[in-house]
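Subject: sequence -> structure tokens, single chain

Hey, anyone have a minute? Need the predicted structure for the following. Not urgent.
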Amino acid sequence: VTNKLLAPDVDLVFAAVPAAVEKLGAPDKTIVVGNPVRPEVFTKAKDRDAIRAELGAGDRTVILSFGGSLGARRVNEVVADLCAWEQHEKKPVLHLHATGQYGVQLFKDLEKEKNFAEGDGLVVKEYINNMPELLAAADLVISRAGALTLAELEAVGRAAVLIPSPNVAENHQYFNAMELQKADAAVVIEEKDLTGEKLVSTVSDMLAQPGKLAEMGKNARSLSVDDSLDRIADALMKMVQK
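Reply:
Had a minute. Here:
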């Protein structure tokens, strides 16, 4: 909302994706630059095999899930259903999950309730301090759809199940996530439709199709704007030199 209010009165507007240009209301002075991604996301992606070896992933599918630093209750609840399914069905996966600050006890309770446990196939932490490494290792990411998260998924080229937060201005996470779904880089599940059964069904379908996650990851990679910082710097230099 603030961006739309300010756009008519500034000299230059930067948009992360083409779909945002018209929404910002100043198309004549808007440049699509992507979202800058920290360099280590790119560098760690090159070390994928070594990082997977350190994690002991082997040939298993690595699933990374998180719902933000505070911990989204609904994300924790449905991920618990997924973890239970993975273990009960003996799926060859390594699942890495971050509960967030307020999800620690909730997830422990869900482990008991749904009869699954941390171990060789499931690692649970409160917070992820090494996100670039885990993104590099992952085959599938389950997360909210914040702009920077999406930029990092595109940078490393990872398939995703995106659960947009409904508690954001103008539902922008949903619209950003849909850009990835349109490119067959992600599956979007709105929170109003989110159930454990829905998440399990979605992931099960993905795992059942050989090469599907790799294909989606390739599609995500094609959306990445690797030179975002350069685009921003160049545009600013041209503006001040006028």
